[in-house]
Amino acid sequence: MLEKVNDILKNDGVIAYVTDTVWGLGCLPSSEKAVKRIYEIKHRDGKKPLILMSDEFYNLFDYLKQPIEKEAQKLIKKFFPGALTLVLEKSKKTPDFITSGLTTVGVRIPDNNTFAQICRNIEGRVLATTSANLSGTPPALTYDEAIKYIGDKVDLVIPDYGCKANGIASTVAGFRNGQTVIFRQGEVVI
């Protein structure tokens, strides 16, 4: 299965998978063609950026401007892996087609073994991602919902192998003048 995932992703494919919060849609961050497909699948507004997710934070370093601010480092130590998405300054490696031209990118490390196994077996160990649903509708919370909502539009829906999504969205936080700003309150309370 994991070899198949790698082949799909290397050929501009889009996959669906479980995370700790909701089901996700993803592709390799370098594939503009696959990112465009995600926007088409979801009927997503092109001004809404995707985020980057991995199984380990160090896999995301090259996508972020260094040094990462101290407040962000504290939250990373406390809440990663988990249901927190941090919006940080991006590096030149992060393509504008992922961030809708913004100078920042959201990053997250889901606390889900199935998702981690997928990342450990793909090239680069990072996915450009968003929730598995059509824009404006609730995200998929189970394998069956993922199949129903977007199964015929993606190249593969990976079974959850018993690692379920809890159904509560991640908290999205960023920083202004060294202060933490909450963009979306989710499971994690800062």
Brief summary:
The protein is an alpha/beta fold. Helices cover 26% and strands 22% of the residues.
Description:
The protein has 190 residues and is α/β, with parallel strands linked by helices. It is built from six helices and nine strands; from the N terminus they run H-E-E-H-E-H-E-H-E-H-E-H-E-E-E. It has helices spanning 2-10, 32-42, 70-79, 96-99, 113-120, 143-150; strands at residues 15-17, 24-27, 51-54, 84-89, 104-108, 126-131, 156-157, 171-176, 179-184. Strands 7-1-2-6-3-5-4-8-9 form a nine-stranded mixed β-sheet, with helices on both faces. A hairpin with a 2-residue loop joins strand 8 and strand 9. The model has no long low-confidence stretch (mean pLDDT 95).
Specify the CATH class.
Alpha Beta
In the predicted model, the low-confidence regions spanning at least 5 consecutive residues are none
Largest sheet strand order: 7-1-2-6-3-5-4-8-9
* Biggest pleated-sheet summary: 9 strands, mixed
Mean of residue pLDDT values: 95
| Coarse structural class | alpha/beta
Architecture per CATH nomenclature, i.e. the level-2 architecture: Alpha-Beta Complex
Helical region count?
6
CATH fold topology:
DHBP synthase
